[in-house]
Amino acid sequence: MTSRLRPVLYGVSGVVVLLVLAELIGQLGLLGTTWPPLSTVVAFLLDPDNHTLLGNALAATVTEALIGGAIGIAAGVFFALLAVLVPVLAPGLDRFAAVIDAVPAVALAPFLILILGREGTPVLVVALSVTFIIYISMSSGLSVASHPYQDLFTVLGARRGTRLGLVDLPAALPKFFDGLALAAPAMILGATIGEWFGAKRGLGVLFISAMQNYRIDLLWAAAALSVICSLIIYGIAVAAQRAVARRFA
Amino acid sequence: MTQSLSVAAARTTGGLFGRVGGAVGRFLLVVLQRYWPIILLLIAWPVWLWANGYSRAVAPSPLDVATDLVLHPDVYVWPVLWTTLFAVGGLALGMLVGVVLGVLVWMSPLASGLLMPSALILRVVPVTAMIPILARLFGYGSGTVVVIVVILVFFPAFSLTVSGMSSVAKSSRDLFGVLGAGLLTRVLRLHLPAAIPSIMLALRLSAPIAILGVLLAEYLISGVGLGDLLRSSADRLQFEREWASALVATALSVLCFGLAQSLERRVVDRVT
Amino acid sequence: MRSYSEANSSSIGSVVPVSSVLQQVTRTPSREISLTEVSKSYPLKRGATLTALQDISLTIGNGEFLALLGPSGCGKSTILRIVAGLEQPSSGTVTVGDSTPQALSREHRLGVAFQEHSLLPWLTIRQNIALPYRVAGRSVDTAHVQELIDLVGLAGFEDARPKQLSGGMRQRASIARALVLDPEVLLLDEPFGALDAVTRRRMNRELGRIWSELRITTLLVTHDVDEAVLLADRVVVMTGRPGSIRHIEDVDLPLREHSELTRSPEFHDIVDRLTGLLDAPKDA
């Protein structure tokens, strides 16, 4: 029991040390006014006066992240299945996925703005990065779908579609949720990058306006919110991943 | 006699053409199979512009973009060099710091227990939030660009080094135990070499991230590089230049990814 | 261990006379391994314990080749891991000579080969065999490494990487690595378990030849009856749950050539009897 509790204990103490360190740097002013004490940031977050500003930005960013994430997941799964069902398309899709991954989101902005406008761009940036991550993890999940079972079903004369549904897809589920956990931080990041290209609302907009107006507390509060959001999405993905791993391992 | 010779010659040349034709056909087929989505995009681009009736001022065609690239190479050369320099320098430095700290943390269960969860939290801080804070801390200059890339590259290198060092097969660990190897010997002769595939994976994952980090940082805070070109041409409504620098940035990033990938393949083939 | 006539070496392709290796090895004395009432149990969930070994008392004489034979899960590998100093017994004592396994491993005096060859993929065969020198912090005796490469029949493959070799060749390299520091105790944990039957027999033959040159105190863990009877001076048959000694067989076959031996009625007698012991329920 103690050996199972120890990693949790270490981890929690590590996080506490990190938070205390951040608070001390702020309290002692070691890094100047740019690094406020964490307590100030928390107070700013809790102050009802700021809730409209932060709430609007948060709602915008989370909405973009979730819509973009949903589109990205659907597209990633679709393309991964396409590559499996129409193998001739697979080499091209694999290479294109590598290119999409390598393309810096900033560079895509001019094209995306033209296609969806400044408000739709964040959604598309999120969708693109999530598509890539899900495509890669689904493809690797579908290809590892354990060969003994594949052989069994082939011998039993199962059709391609039957085998995909009964064997390959369930076997790929753990990898899918691995991908989802990886995609979680990418969703918030993608949304805030997209917001840099002229969106009216969002955490990304707050980052820039706070920086330009020397609103250090606002900058940190917005950053803290983005981290908390990423962690919550990540936590949900990891919980789903664990549940699936228990069921399908 | 002569007749049969010429017939034979004709057959040979015909066969030769057939073979060459077949080879070209196969080559085109391979290109089509590997790059069909990109070819599709290049076709869809002008078609889509035409269908929506966009004017050149709003949306440049591939031809406009290519023309600007060819006529004004001087505009792009320096930004590309700057961006490459910062990305590669930051990548190297970040990998070094990540691997060294990863090794040190792996050697101490207490340190890894303390630091890994914190590293996870710091890892999800979006770079978009990081850049404004770091810019305020370290100034709006090129030094900050390097700091940003180092931080971005650090986390994958760090966590993959730790997990790679822990992934050593039990029989190898037993072997070093029976041979009476000390901690340092185990790290240098077993765990670190065993982590090389993971470290190379971190390099491949980080290469495009480094480029993205430099571009974002340049876009927002420093007055040099491709990110700055992207922003300044957008501000001046030079759309063909904005699109061209976006294309150049994409090409640079894909190139870095490709180089890192081929390096990874070579190194991993050597150590596994 | 029976020594084989010179004739049998003709069956092995690249064998080199090994008198020089013999000289090197004779300078180090072998040691006796002694286990006294060794038990090993592992804690399970909810306070339960799994007893892997119960009251094992066993002595492996100086220069003796002893085989531990038993079905998988009978704890025979646990005995080897305890003798190797990789695990501590829950009760009882283990001594090697007048020392402990841990002390012996600290002094780099143990040689070991596992079922997984555990050759490091980033090193060449020569570097892998020289690895124990590096781990011990000694300068590599290149001549001795080369002798061992010749001894196990890997001449010409020194600069190959493990993945370029067949399973049998990897095990040869792994055995050469186990021998390179002239260990006082040689521990072999199913060293040929991953090989096909034909390769396995050939490797048995070669190990027999190599061992008869070196005569190191050796503990072999195996589930292959033929292998145990072919190689060992004594075969210890184990049963599982909890692991305990069921029978000890002194193999006292007349010295003769390997292929003849495997066809002899005496050999089959012992093999049949031990196989019967492995099959039969414990209280039979």
Automatic annotation (TrEMBL), chain A:
Its main location: membrane. Keywords: Cell membrane, Membrane, Transmembrane, Transmembrane helix, Transport. It is found in: Cell membrane. The keyword Transmembrane helix applies. InterPro entries: MetI-like, MetI-like_sf. The chain crosses the membrane at residues 7-30, 65-89, 96-117, 123-145, 179-198, 218-240. It is a multi-pass membrane protein. Residues 54-237 form the ABC transmembrane type-1 domain. Belongs to the binding-protein-dependent transport system permease family. This is ABC transporter permease subunit. It comes from Herbiconiux moechotypicola.
TrEMBL record, chain B:
Keywords: Cell membrane, Membrane, Transmembrane, Transmembrane helix, Transport. PROSITE patterns: ABC_TM1. It is a multi-pass membrane protein. The keyword Transmembrane applies. Gene3D superfamilies: MetI-like (1.10.3720.10). The keyword Cell membrane applies. InterPro entries: MetI-like (IPR000515), MetI-like_sf (IPR035906). Pfam families: BPD_transp_1. Belongs to the binding-protein-dependent transport system permease family. PANTHER family: ABC TRANSPORTER PERMEASE PROTEIN MJ0413-RELATED (PTHR30151:SF0), ALKANE SULFONATE ABC TRANSPORTER-RELATED, MEMBRANE SUBUNIT (PTHR30151). This is ABC transporter permease subunit.
